Amino acid sequence: MKRGRRRAKDRESGTLSTRVRRIWEVVTTTLALLTAVYLVLNTIEPTRMVLERYVLKLNVEALTAIVAIMLEVAIVAVYQLGRQVRTMRAELGPRKDTEVVDDVGAVVDAVKRLSRTGRRSERTLEVLGLTLNTTWPQLAPWVTGHGAPAHWRITLYSLDPEYVRRSGELPAHWSDEAARSQERIRALAAEEADELAHRRIKLDLHTYACLPVVHGFRLGNGDLFLAYLQWTEAGSIRPFEFYEHIPRADTSPRANRYRDLFESWLNRAAAKTTEPKAA
Fold it and tell me: How far apart, in whole angstroms, are the C-alpha atoms of residue 112 and residue 37?
């Protein structure tokens, strides 16, 4: 509720400031145009006499005032332009940070950075994976190696090998790959159980039975790495070999829709869990 009220106040404040800025722009623009028209008409003899009689006689003092007004309008215009440019940069900055990465290593690097610099409450990693055949070999050395992390919750989702065999759409060899990866994860969790507990690392492995059209990684700080499945010309499925990185700072409607998309597929995998294992 507090967050909703704060957002409402921010929107009201933004609307008010926008109205004030627009009114100021109209006033200064009108003043500049009137001043310019006056100076032009003052160069024409008949109109100059009328202006001097009924409006203002252009002497040194009046000319100084006009120049001061024009200078002030120019300064305000430059300032407003600078604000607009800064606003555009702030809006476009998060989109510029969005990038495509081709390797799981880039994801693991982001996890390591979060482990070094992130808050403890952000140290979560959710992996909606396929067979984990490429992901786990890169995660395992980080989990158990030199300078291993602490206070992490890592949740892994992997395809149920039996589901792969029955699907008729997923590559048949994924069944064996998934089974081997799951065996390795459970073996490491068992062997390192005391050490993981000492470092407050909770490692959960779940198998699921649904088509993982959308998969990827979600970090506790809001970073998201999305990947998809594609159809080949031969009619088989394979991963579309890239991850789209949605940075935590990107709060655009597009980024938030992607977060909702990943959330829906993660929830689907959780609902289709076949053999949940708490390692």
Answer: 64
Output the pLDDT for position 144: 87
Rounded to the nearest 5 degrees, what angle is found at the Cα of 10, between the Cα atoms of 7 and 13? Answer: 155
Give residue 44's Cα distance to chain centre: 60
AA letter at 187: A
Residue 151 pLDDT level (bands cut at 50, 70, 90): very high
pLDDT band at 11 (very low <50, low <70, confident <90, very high): very low
> How far is residue 183's CA from residue 180's CA, in Å, rounded to a whole number?
5
pTM score:
0.64
